[in-house]
Each structure stands twice: as structure tokens, then as C-alpha cells.
Structure of Mitochondrial carrier protein:
Amino acid sequence: MTVSRAGKWDARYLGPVPHDTSYYAKCMLGGVLACGITHAGITPLDVTKCNMQVNPGKYKGLISGISLIMKEEGSSAIWKGAGPTFVGYSLQGMFKYGLYEVFKDLYMNLAGEEASEKYKPAIWLAGSASAEFFADIALCPLEMTKVKIQTSPAGTFPIPMGAALAEMSKTAADTRYPFGSLVPLWSRQIPYTMAKFFFFEGIVKLFYTHLLTEPKETYSKGTQLGVTFASGYLAGVICAIVSHPADTLVSLMGKPANKSKTVGQIASETGFVTLATKGLGTRIVMIGTLTGFQWWIYDTFKSSMGLGTTGGK
């Protein structure tokens, strides 16, 4: 059924179930699970990556960086910032995935049946960018706290989440908390999310057009979820490359020496090559794996709720 009760074509009725309030709420919950769990789970990689960006002379690689952090600060140091990471990215995932479904349906209905099919990639881009705009507002205070915890020299900043948030508020004039990193966060996350959803949807469509040519619903849930993971992983590699310069800037803004500098000054002093390459290998591994599992968790949850898997239409 692809028409509303009024008899008009309606994008909310294209899937296996109507996209009503319950559908969007379940997608939001799926986003919480997908992003909160995965981001918190790779905290050791994130701690190392951030320190490689902020102090490249000291932290030269992933394995050596992890070893150095553990040697100097103890084995638990590689889990610094896991609390704000989990909470922040749970909130971000809720809006990223849930609002993507909302905006995608909205823009398809505004475009109409013919135009929405013709310009589907543009709708994926617009929907994901719109969703991420709001998701980053929710994420920003916790992302700033997470970066500060992970990049501060041992003993100079509290590690427990509550104490760290209190310290960020107390030193807001210096840290620019809670939204001082919002613009570089937008510049990192919006291109990342646009690439994440655009390439995911496109790769899924390629799978069901050229490799699995029967109707999508005829394949088992295991096969569909395998397509989801592979598409998510490949999309994640592209995402990492696209968003890495801005990610480096976000990390550098947490460095005490940069507290009085603008984003432009930090970027100019660092240089584009360093912004684009330092820690990129680690981030490709991190984001590829992260994105693959995010989509797999999200679609597994959707399938368990009877909502079907994402994309392929």
C-alpha cells in the first residue's frame, strides 16, 4: 500500500508497515542502541586516535599509542570518556536515525512520487543532513567533555563523567562549553552522516540490483542483515575519509594551548595535510567497523520490531 487514507501517494506507506509515530519512535530507539553501544565499545581506539591528533610527536601509531597510554596512566586509561561517549552518542543516534526517517518521508512527500524516485539520492542527502543538524546539538556538550577527558594530561582533569561535566561548566569561559565545538562538530558530522546514509542506501541498492536480483523480501533476514553490515562497513570507510579533517579540529580544540584560538587559526597552524591524514588509518578501522555494526544493530532491531531492513527499494 503506497497511498494514504485520502487516496494520495504517500511515502509513509512505501514500506512493510506504515511510518506512523510508533514507527518513528522505534527507529529512534534503534538509533540509541546502534550508536551508544558501538561508540562506547571502541573507546580505546577513540582515546588513542584523539591523542595522536593532539600530540602526534608522542603518539605515533595505534598499537604503540595504546601501549604508551596504558604504561603511563594504567590499563583503565584507554576507557577514559566512555560515560559521556555512551550518553552523547545515544542521544545523537536517537535523532540521527529517527529524524532521518522523518525527514526522508517529509522530503519525498514534498517532492511527489515521480520526483522522489528520480532524485532519490538528493533526498537521502537532505534527510541525513537535516537529521544530523539536530543530533549534533544533543551531542556537542558530551562530545566536548569526552575529548577533554581523553586528551588532558593525567591528573589535570577529572575522569568520572559527573565530575567532568561539572568541571566543564565551571571552566566554561576557557572550554567554550557547552556548544563551543558545535560548528566544527557540524562540519565533521554532517558530511559524515550524509556520506553514511547516501553510500549505505546506494550500496544496498546495488546489492539488490546486481547481486541479489530477486525481490528483497524473498531473502532471509540473515541475508538481508549481511547486506546491511557489508554496506555499512563500506560506507563507513568513505565516511572516515570525508570527515577526518574536521574530526582532527574537534580534538585539537580540546588542547589547552588552543583554548584562545579560533577554528581558522588552529586549521591554519596545523595545515590541511596533517588535518586530513594524522590518525586517519586508525579512524578508517574505527569508523568502518563502527558504521557496519551500527547499521547491523539498527536493522536487527527494526527487523525484530517487524519494521523490515533499511534500503533496497
Observations:
- Residues 221-253 form the longest helix (33 residues).
- The chain has a mean pLDDT of 91.
- The chain has one domain: 16-305.
- The radius of gyration is 20 Å.
